[in-house]
């Protein structure tokens, strides 16, 4: 009962902290989530308190008033390990801490932290139009879509050595499904990274779908182009083994091969030969180069190498 009174006191004194703030004693603390505030259902997350002052204990407060059994009648030290998370854990959180120098004995409520729980609905799909390989200064449209009537979509962008960005998009009905478009352009190297899309409905904006498959947006044209050649010439027999060779004066850490504007899985470190194996697909191939610390920022493409496939290779006589 005593702990419950402390919690009520924390909220009541939030309204009068402005007086203390003018006296220089106010500390607007914050709450963070590790590894991320976007948590798959069934996983765990650590809520961590941050402040310029030394707090002894803190009290967690879920602002939407939903019941979280782990919080009932408890005070915590510095952090709280929460999980396995369920939809009940989704929502906005604050904390207040016991601080003897405050007139009330409690700090002001911290800044808001939103915890999103994913995996509540089936995953959405994410497309890049015209394609995810974008020349610098070009334009691209990212399209989230789902068979579920989502009222909003959320794009999360993971960039190299930077915190993730979260973009909220309005969902629109489209032929019995829902979708949202996000146009980017002119694109710069800052747009390169891995994108995922989630969907949510209006009455539960903190409960998200399973993420879409990852979509890598690659920016090309940042370094001089490579050259690409085929070991056996431009015409090969069907199912004949083929190797393509990518050459460059710049010693790239990674080489990439694409066909029809789509990156293949041939990301080969330091090696410039692409063993394609038995040849089955004709088309225009290009190669690119990139460095270890910027895998989504590529060189200009090589001139296209057009490979044609003829009839099956004849069997040797017995």
Automatic annotation (TrEMBL):
Keywords: Disulfide bond, Immunoglobulin domain, Signal. One of its GO terms (cellular component) is plasma membrane. Residues 132-210 form the Immunoglobulin-like beta-sandwich domain. One of its GO terms (biological process) is immune response-regulating signaling pathway. The keyword Signal applies. This is Immunoglobulin-like beta-sandwich domain-containing protein. Pfam families: ig (PF00047).
């Amino acid at each position: 009962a005593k702990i419950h009174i402390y919690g009520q006191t924390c909220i009541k004194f939030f309204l009068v902290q402005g007086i203390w703030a003018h006296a220089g004693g106010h500390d607007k603390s914050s709450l963070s989530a590790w590894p991320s505030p976007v948590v798959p259902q069934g996983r765990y997350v650590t809520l961590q308190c941050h402040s310029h002052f030394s707090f002894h204990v803190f009290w967690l407060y879920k602002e939407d008033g939903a019941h979280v059994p782990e919080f009932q009648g408890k005070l915590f030290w510095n952090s709280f390990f929460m999980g396995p998370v369920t939809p009940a854990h989704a929502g906005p959180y604050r904390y207040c801490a016991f601080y003897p120098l405050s007139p009330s004995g409690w700090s002001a409520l911290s800044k808001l932290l939103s915890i999103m729980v994913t995996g509540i609905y089936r995953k959405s799909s994410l497309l890049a139009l015209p394609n995810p390989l974008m020349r610098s200064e070009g334009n691209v449209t990212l399209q989230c879509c789902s068979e579920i009537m989502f009222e909003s979509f959320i794009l999360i962008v993971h960039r190299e050595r930077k915190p993730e960005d979260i973009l909220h998009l309005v969902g629109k009905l489209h032929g019995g499904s829902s979708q949202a478009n996000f146009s980017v352009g002119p694109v710069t190297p800052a747009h390169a990274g891995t994108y995922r899309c989630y969907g949510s409905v209006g009455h539960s904006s903190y409960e998200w779908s399973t993420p879409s498959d990852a979509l890598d947006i690659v920016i090309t044209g940042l370094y001089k182009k490579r050259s690409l050649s085929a070991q056996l010439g431009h015409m090969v027999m069907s199912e004949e083994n083929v190797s393509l060779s990518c050459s460059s004066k710049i010693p790239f850490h990674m080489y990439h091969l694409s066909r029809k504007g789509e990156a293949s899985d041939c990301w080969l470190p330091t090696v410039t030969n692409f063993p394609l194996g038995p040849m089955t697909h004709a088309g225009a191939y290009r190669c690119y180069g990139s460095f270890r610390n910027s895998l989504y920022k590529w060189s200009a493409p090589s001139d296209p190498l057009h490979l044609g496939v003829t009839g099956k290779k004849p069997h040797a006589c017995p």
